[in-house]
Amino acid sequence: MCFIACLFISVGIMLEYEKSGELKTKSIDLLDLGPSTDVSALVEEIQQAEPLITASRTEQVKLLIQRLQEKLGQHSNHTFYLFKVLRAHILPLTNVALNKSGSCFITGSYDRTCKLWDTASGEELNTLEGHRNVVYAVAFNNPYGDKIATGSFDKTCKLWSVETGQCYHTFRGHRAEIVCLSFNPQSTLVATGSMDTTAKLWNIQNGEEVLTLTGHSAEIVSLSFNTSGDRIMTGSFDHTVIVWDAGTGRKVHTLIGHCAEISSALFNWDCSLILTGSMDKTCMLWDATNGKCMATLTGHEDEILDSCFDYTGKLIATASADGTARIFSAATRKCIAKLEGHEGDISKISFNPQGNRLLTGSSDKTARIWDAQTGQCLQVLEGHTDEIFSCAFNYKGNIVITGSVEPRSWRLQ
Ligand SMILES: *[C@@H]1O[C@H](CO)[C@@H](O)[C@H](O)[C@H]1NC(C)=O
Ligand SMILES: *[C@@H]1O[C@H](CO)[C@@H](O)[C@H](O)[C@H]1NC(C)=O
Ligand SMILES: *[C@@H]1O[C@H](CO)[C@@H](O)[C@H](O)[C@H]1NC(C)=O
């Protein structure tokens, strides 16, 4: 048995050029290239942004893009192709995360390790060993990307150097499994959420516990900072979400309204809104400044497993155990599209940073790319033979990584 991660890369062109005698490369993404794209106009646009393409190269680049366009035509809307199948761990993966540029990523595993991978080569860069039980939550301190935090069922969190794999600190104090974690935006603190019903903040310089957030009556399963790092929000199986002052640990708001376990809780881009998803089949939208419920988003016929905002905060996407995803307008709170096609639970949903695509991962073994305006399925990403429980875009939106448990062996492609 082995367990894998798949990487999907979108179409683009790679420019090779010489600069002071050195051969350099630069990639240009063509995320929106389609059969009807005006290639001449596109090349003009690229030239304006890329002084590397001189007039003498125009025809060459045009031909290159035309050839890509023909290929796209043959493969309908298949803009992502399966780039790598990675034999990641001896035991199943738990979670995956990319660094900001997407040039490397990490996988957590039931084999008690976290592995660091080079995206381009598929090469394993490092294995972070030391936990005594499942490594469940993994995170980079993006945008810096020089540190990794791992949260384990062994009740500890470890902080690691990306460059050397050295363990800087082991944070001890939780009385049960750590299932979620996050760096603050300044990358000075790590927050951990645990089955022991508390969250803790840790100082990454000296390794000391800064605060314990006590107030939930059941497991904490989601945790996020607001953009300035002054507030931290925890979502719990006790059906509530609490917003805390990250400096003092004081409870600022308790969001009460859901009538089942919380599955996700997050801020929108300017932190004016909070979106919560629950096993009660609804999502709720809250005013982040006063903690009041503004709307309940209904329509799903089963538990909400994940939800997200796009980066402008105009759209909301929800994923459900009913096998569908939905797009809501944040302004009108109306459902504007229903994403149908998956044949199993959808456990993950995210917008690409450009906001024009949605990525979903499902127990039907596929991930899908959707048009975020129309809800049309643009591509089915196949390559796994078991449930996909984790998937993510990189910052540029041209790389997708999916994590799954695989019941049979794979070769590197
Ligand atoms: C590709 O996607 C576009 C919308 O982005 C759609 O109009 C077109 O029908 C799709 N083509 C195929 C072959 O699915
Ligand atoms: C991502 O990781 C690679 C490899 O460690 C590194 O070279 C690159 O600078 C990182 N990028 C960001 C934005 O963190
Ligand atoms: C985070 O929360 C604090 C306290 O409400 C607020 O002052 C700050 O503006 C918030 N950050 C953002 C980016 O909204």
From TrEMBL:
SUPFAM superfamilies found in the cross-reference section: WD40 repeat-like
The keyword Signal is assigned to this record: yes
WD repeat windows: 86-127, 128-170, 171-212, 213-254, 255-296, 297-338, 339-380
Main location (coarse class): cytoplasm
PROSITE patterns per UniProt: WD_REPEATS_1, WD_REPEATS_2, WD_REPEATS_REGION
Highest rank taxon of the organism: Eukaryota
Database matches in InterPro entries: WD40/YVTN_repeat-like_dom_sf, WD40_PAC1, WD40_repeat_CS, WD40_repeat_dom_sf, WD40_rpt
Signal peptide extent: 1-16
Keywords: Cell projection, Cilium, Cytoplasm, Cytoskeleton, Flagellum, Repeat, Signal, WD repeat
Entry keyword annotation includes Cytoplasm: yes
Compartments, as annotated in UniProt: Cytoplasm, Cytoskeleton, Flagellum axoneme; Cytoplasm, Cytoskeleton, Flagellum basal body
Subunit structure, interactors included: Interacts with IFT46.
Protein family per UniProt: Belongs to the WD repeat WDR69 family.
Function: Required for axonemal dynein assembly and ciliary motility in ciliated organs, including Kupffer's vesicle, during embryogenesis. Facilitates the onset of robust cilia motility during development.
Name assigned to this protein: Dynein assembly factor with WD repeat domains 1
Native species: Callithrix jacchus
Lineage: Eukaryota, Metazoa, Chordata, Craniata, Vertebrata
